[in-house]
Prior knowledge:
Elements: H1 2-65, H2 73-97, H3 100-105, H4 107-116, E1 122-126, H5 134-154, E2 160-168, E3 171-178, H6 191-201, E4 206-210, E5 217-224
Helix pairs in contact: 1-2, 4-5, 5-6
Amino acid sequence: MRLVQQILTRPEQRLRHDLAATSQSRARLVRSFDVERRRIERDLHDAVQPQLLSVSMTLGLALAALPSDSPGRDDIVRAQQQARKTLDDLRRVVRNIHPQVLIDHGLGSAVREIGDNFTIPVAVDDRLDLRLPPEIETNLYFCVSELLSNVVKHSSASRARVTLTRPTPDQIRICVHDDGCGGAGARRTDGGLSAITDRLAALDGSLTVDSPFGGPTSITVVAPNPSTI
């Protein structure tokens, strides 16, 4: 009987071991991706942006020294405009890679900044109180960013609300609610939800969609807070 019990329990033990190893591997991947994002953001911010700013300033000095009727002045004006536009685009890319407000002030403030950039009003109710581990904040930030982008692009909503809570010390819950047309998850344009699900899987998190046709829509993201586990 004991031999039979050992034979039956060993596969279960191996399964638990494999699941634990998979979870640890996912966590390492999340951390490594976050480190790499920060490195790219730092390189762009500290190296490329100052160079573009220097180009723009040099062109400005050249314009100031040229008479208004000088040949080629219009070309320099266009070059300076292109340099400024490229700098603005780069700053937007840097912000999307890893926004500075997320590093300095945390998830709630970063989500507010996202909301301020959309064409519909986005209310943010931040009840987290404490900072989360960097890899959790980063991944939840991009989940919320993708969800709000879907609201603006596909739902025809007039407003949205994001609520960030910690129902238990070891759990983070974020709800994105909108008053749009519903049907999220059923549309062919909702491929972003799969990307969010994949990102949450690396955190052992989950995504729940409540979006009847005709609306409203509530999408809930739940993730563990490993700093308390």
